[in-house]
């Protein structure tokens, strides 16, 4: 569809048709893998139990998605832009679960706005500004399944919410390599007795040639009884159980040496009972159409008096082979270890996933 | 997409390609606004409570929607036509709630049929013929949020159901300005002891130059225990609680003076316990790419013995600015007052909404 | 859309634009009918009850669906392929119920894979290899509503599941008319105490000129408490109640004599308590743009000691008229009789459906 429209524009130019403009582009990613997931669980000092499962799953290298988007030139450097993008589980055909307030038709992104010399302003459901920086500085190409951060972070304090409904987003233009973004989401759940929840995020980054470095902050005002934020189980739109303002800070960078691309990041996450410190490192090395990538994450959570300290670690090795610009075959192994619970007898979960898959973008 | 296909047709004509026909058009509306909703509630003679909430919502000027539609020329003046159209809440990405039997993928319209010299006949889920007339004679461009009727009508008798599933629709051709439509929806819920529910609607209208005038009727046969109709809460596909045949009558008109466009309508709605009388007036005045519109509604419900008489009033001021044919910025204020309840100690709800938004069609 | 892209390719070739390739095709079927369904029910020797209902339903001649699909030429005879296809009920606009694990956005098919000289391998949710053969050798064009098998088979042993989530599919190339397919779906629901469920299917067929003949097998490993398979009510993703491995075998054939096309099939289905034997016959006779088709099915189930023997029969007459290659009008009558229950006082259900409808593909 996209190429079609480009071709059309070319034809239009040739044939002297002035208004051969597209008004909507249909696009997406179809990504699936076959693999094995081995989970070892140990509660306190009890014996370890082991379960190994064969799986066909979606969203290995990238999240499977489909969407509609468009941009209309309004003249004077101004454009109207919109995006409607949903996630699906290719292994069942179902809408994929996306916290918070997810599991919806266009749950990944849904917005309409204006773009000009001032930047872009839009209204709807957006990826937070925090997540945007996290994504571009994450290891393993920010894979939803194989990036080590996906499985390891949030060991103590629930990881930040990737999206915000009922939000206003502003993305700045680029000033000599410096750019930034702000997203503010309204809980719209104020009552006679409690405030509305909200999600506020921002990032600022510097990108110049091989270097990208940035800082991001996210703050989630959660009110007991509110349903604007998800819980750590990832189930969409549940009720928040405690009143808390969670704060997330992230420093991230990447440097492309040509022979290798390095990424790294350091985060902190604070709730009213815990503080987590997390870092991740990644490297990818291209070999013609192929590439090898490795990632490592470590997370550590300290709790208030009486709460167990928790740790998480993860390591990934991923090989990719580009069959074309739009189609990539991949193989990966990810090994994670994660502690959970509140007392000394916490649970240790080790997961080893090996997978072979294919990603196609359209 | 639409423009693309038009361009294609033009190119096809030039290049001598005879069969450059599209088989499906992807289209939609993305509409969102940021605003404030202040609600004042008073139960009987008790003190008024007040709640003010900031919101980012969808469907301000028009309902956000996406759809697939097509028309195939079958020769001899006959075409096959189809439409599959769904509503979404751009502020969450979710499928929007549409009563009755709504909240579904293609909940706005889903039909296939034939169009010819005789008119159009189609099968599926349709907007009722009553709603079609109401839409084109409603104030504030029939906005789902700012038309005064949306918030004020249905004060006593639940307002008519906009759509009918399991329906046959017929739209006549135009006879010297006169045209009409009929939609008949089958409840398909007949049992050994109760009849099936149904929704029957028709309209007839005369449109000539600046004048449009029409009459519409809708009749909803509701059976206790049936689930073909919604309740006044708008939740989709609930169970009807009483057996009743509700009757709706509407007279509507619009006249375009050039410097201003006037609209107006008078309705009655009858249930087995209540009779409502409703009217609305609207005016819109264009100023180049901008326009200012005002709307007013009033509704009055008289109940059977022992039931409180209820009133509703609403007033809207809306400014629009067309950034292009497809993109419109808008600002609006709507102020409504509505009574609800059965006894003298009924509830009075006043809502003041102010909003700034953007609508983009694709 | 499809024709558009073909036209584009033609234009591209003319205008010397080399890369006028589409990356996604939007396609579907919109099918609806108006009809009457008369159901007569008799429990044991009790008096027969009769209920006649008027309906507007979808999916008469073919299942209403919409989807996205694409194929990318990767060079060397290799292509990347994907399909995302969902079912909808055109009479309500809702996503249609598809067992097992259905009722989902792309519940019909969702996969991505590679196609080459070796055949096609894909990952995701697939139609089973068993269903593929059943479909091409079924009577009444494998209509979801009017094929006699749809209403009659599965009288004792629940009929096979048409689709498998979490599956790997392989379709072989054609070897001198011989080809085959295998689909293996993983329940992914292994626990510490029970195995994972799975669905395994294969078919092999020979197609040469007017003749097609094939054999198919499907095996469903169902575990009590598992949710990978549907129940006989067709409700998606329920919990399986008994541990059982169901086995389905099918022999099917079709022969096109030109003046008439004959189809036929013989199946067996086995559960741990029942064995069903089923056969079907069909004929279709073209008359220019029109065609007349007739179908007949018979099913017989023998149960373990104490379980009633059950029978089912069905007969259909269907006339079609092609208004174009993409649009077909149809009229049908289907008469079925089906026994259900476990004891001698089983229920006999007779259903007579008459319908007039239209199918449009896009």
Automatic annotation (TrEMBL), chains A, B, C:
Key words of the record: Cell outer membrane, Ion transport, Membrane, Plasmid, Porin, Signal, Transmembrane, Transmembrane beta strand, Transport
Membrane topology according to the record: Multi-pass membrane protein
GO MF, any single term: porin activity
Protein's GO biological process: monoatomic ion transmembrane transport
SUPFAM superfamilies membership: Porins
Main location: membrane
Family matches, as Pfam families: Porin_4
Entry coiled-coil feature ranges: none
Domain Porin, residue spans: 7-336
Cleaved signal peptide residues: 1-20
Subcellular location: Cell outer membrane
GO CC, any one term: pore complex
Subunit structure as annotated in this protein's UniProt entry: Homotrimer.
Cross-referenced PANTHER family: MAJOR OUTER MEMBRANE PROTEIN P.IA, PROTEIN YDDL-RELATED
Protein name: Porin
Annotated organism of origin: Polaromonas hydrogenivorans
């Amino acid at each position: 569809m996209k190429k079609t429209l480009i071709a059309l524009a070319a034809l239009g130019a040739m044939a002297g048709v002035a208004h051969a403009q597209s008004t909507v582009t249909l696009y997406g990613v179809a990504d699936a893998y076959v693999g094995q997931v081995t989970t070892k669980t140990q509660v306190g000092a009890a014996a370890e139990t082991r379960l190994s499962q064969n799986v066909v799953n979606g969203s290995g290298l990238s999240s499977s998605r489909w969407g509609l988007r468009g941009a209309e030139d309004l003249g004077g450097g101004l454009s109207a832009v919109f995006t409607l993008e949903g996630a699906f589980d290719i292994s069942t055909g179902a809408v994929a679960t996306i916290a918070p307030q997810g599991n919806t038709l266009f749950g990944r992104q849904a917005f309409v706005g204006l773009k000009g010399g001032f930047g872009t302003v839009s209204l709807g459901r957006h990826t937070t500004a925090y997540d945007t920086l996290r994504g571009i500085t994450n290891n393993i190409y920010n894979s939803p399944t194989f990036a080590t951060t996906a499985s390891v972070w949030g060991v103590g304090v629930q990881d930040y919410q990737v999206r915000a409904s009922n939000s206003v987003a502003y993305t700045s233009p680029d000033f000599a390599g410096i750019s930034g973004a702000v997203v503010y989401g309204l809980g719209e759940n104020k009552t006679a007795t409690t405030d509305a929840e909200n999600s506020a995020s921002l990032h600022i980054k510097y990108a110049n040639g091989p270097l990208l470095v940035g800082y991001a902050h996210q703050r989630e005002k959660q009110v007991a009884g509110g349903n604007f934020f998800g819980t750590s189980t990832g189930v969409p739109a549940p009720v928040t159980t405690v009143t808390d303002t969670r704060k997330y800070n992230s420093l991230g960078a990447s440097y492309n040496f040509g022979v290798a691309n390095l990424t790294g990041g350091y985060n902190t996450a604070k709730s009213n009972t815990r503080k987590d410190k997390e870092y991740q490192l990644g490297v990818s090395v291209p070999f013609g159409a192929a590439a090898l990538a490795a990632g490592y994450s470590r997370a550590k959570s300290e709790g208030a008096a009486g709460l167990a300290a928790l740790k998480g670690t993860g390591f990934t090795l991923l090989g990719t082979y580009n069959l074309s610009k739009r189609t990539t075959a991949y193989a990966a192994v990810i090994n994670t270890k994660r502690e959970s619970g509140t007392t000394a007898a916490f649970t240790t979960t080790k997961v080893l996933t090996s997978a072979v898959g294919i990603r196609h973008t359209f």
